[in-house]
Every structure is written in structure tokens, then in C-alpha cells.
Amino acid sequence: MDYDSVADELYALRPEEFTAARASAMASARTAGDRELAARIGALRKPSLAAWVSNLLVRSSPGEVEPLLRLGEGLRQAHQDLDGAQLRELSRRQHALIRALSLQARQLAKEAGHPIGEGVQREVENTLHAVLADPEAARAWAGGRLTKPLDAAVGFPAVAEGARPRRPAPAPAPSRPGKASEQQRRRLDRARKEAEAAERELRGLRDEAAAADRAAGEAKRQVDALQRQVEELTGELERIRSEHQQARFAERTARERARTAGRRVREAGRKAATAADRLERLTSSDA
Question: What are the pLDDT digits (tens) for 135-166?
């Protein structure tokens, strides 16, 4: 046993399974003589429902973790360099992405047997806002071991719709280019490219997930249709079996009646033969 493996297994479980599994892991560690490990396992806290859903998103969609982290890096850099109009555009893209991921998390929770309401979904969205805004929050979320939703209070500064674009710094003289401005431009370009690449990758992954959901839905409809056919055929089979049993019973009854009638015929034949013999003897005696 090792701590990381146990922790990963525990936080991959459904919330109602966590406590019993933790107790079992602690007992196994004590049996193995590792009291320190048992104590560390005992310190692991059961996740809230919102934290469990956030962990479920990480574990069920690992391909979306790295792109989201890269997008967060790009957004944090962009918030240092971009003007108001560009910040508003990035903010709109950010909110659309978080909404899509939170809906995906809600669907995953439903499929795992824990439908969630709007309140829990908002906590998941707040966690994703914190992931994009704070590197520490991003690392905690990517580990898949959250015990409570992350606080979105630490986020990007709001950009009002009426904010006036920042005036660019005066361009340096062509003969003496400003090194700081050039570095800033390069950082801005790099941040923008990383944000756009991450968004494209996430969009592609969402499309793949949507296609997989549609395929799963179609497969379920086929399974349901086949199940109905099975139920219909099962009912028909039961009816035929019942009719077959009734026919066999009728056959046995008819055979029994035929045997009884045969015995009666043979008995009547013996009686008739006996009567004929007596008649013949009497006739012979009179002659």
C-alpha cells in the first residue's frame, strides 16, 4: 500500500462509499504494521457533493484537464497585458467554456447515480472559475482530490462594458527599439496563441464527447428496442409453453381414456365369448 494509490482510489469512489472504504484501508495499513500510513489515510476527508462532481470531471475527462490549465495560464497572462475590449472577449469565452464543462460534469454525475441541482452546479462552476484564475487552485483541481468546492472569489478582475481601452504605450523610435515593449508583445502573442489553442482543443474534445453521447444514446435506444422485443418474445414463449403443457395434458387424458376404453372393450369381448360358449354348449345339449 502507498498513500497516493489509496487516496486516488478513495476519491474515485461515490460519496456514500468513501467512509467505509477509508476505514478498510486504515485497517489494512494497521495490519501491515504501517501506523503512519493508517493515520494519513484517516486524515483524508470525505468530499462534498460539489467537490466529488469536480473530481469526477477530472477523472472522467482527463483530456480536458491540460487544455483548461493552459487556457488559465493564457488568461492570467492576458489579464496583465490586454486592453478592456480584449478582456471582455476573453471573459465571454471563459464563461461559455465553464458553462459547457459544468453541464458536462452534471451529466457525468447523473450517469454515476447522483443527479445534482442548480446549487451544486454553481459550486462546480465557481471551482472552474477559480481553476482558471489561480495556479494553486488549478493544481488542486487537477489532482482530483478536492474535499470542498474551490472559492471563486480569487478570480480575474471584472471588466465593465463601459471600460475604456487602455492607451498603448508610445512606440519607441525605430533606431532604438524598446526591449521591454518587445518582450511584452511576445508574451501577449504567446498567451493569446496558447489560449486559442487550448480553446480549440477543448472545443474538439467537447465535440468528441457530444458525438460519444449521441452514439451512447443511439445504442441505448437500440438496447431498449431489443429489450422490448425480448420481453415480447418471452411473453409469446410463455404463452406457447402454456399451450404446449395444456396440449400434453389433453394428450395424456385422451390416452388414458383410450386405454380405459380398450380395457372395457377387451372385457366386453371376453364376456361375449363366454356367453357364446355357454350358448353353444346349451344348444349341443338339447340336440
Answer: 999 999 999 999 999 986 545 544 333 333 34
Residue 77: all three cell numbers together: 497572462
For residue 159, report the phi and psi dihedrals to the nearest 5 degrees: -120, 110
Residue 58: how many CB atoms within 10 A of its CB? 20
Cα–Cα distance, 141 to 69 (Å, whole number): 10
Q: What is the pLDDT of residues 183-212, one digit of tens each?
A: 656 665 665 666 566 566 666 656 665 565
Residue 106, phi then psi, degrees to nearest 5: -65, -40
> How far is residue 49's CA from residue 105's CA, in Å, rounded to a whole number?
12
- Please state, in angstroms and rounded to a whole number, the distance separating the CA atoms of residues 237 and 243: 10
- Greatest Cα pair distance, the chain, in angstroms, is 166
The Cα 16–Cα 112 span in angstroms is 12
- State pTM to two decimals: 0.55
Query: Residue 108: its pLDDT value, please?
Result: 94
> What is the C-alpha separation between 18 and 26, in angstroms, rounded?
12
Q: Which of 119, 130, 129, 112 is nearest to 52 (CA)?
A: 112
In order, the DSSP letters of 78-96 are HHHH--HHHHHHHHHHHHH
- Report d(CA 39, CA 47) in Å as an integer: 18
| C-alpha distance across the termini of the chain, in Å | 118
The grid coordinates listed for 80 are: 496583465
Distance (Å) of CA 81 to CA 1, 40, 89, 220: 48, 43, 14, 49
* Inter-residue contact 206 to 194 (CB < 8 Å): no
Place of cell 495490519: 31
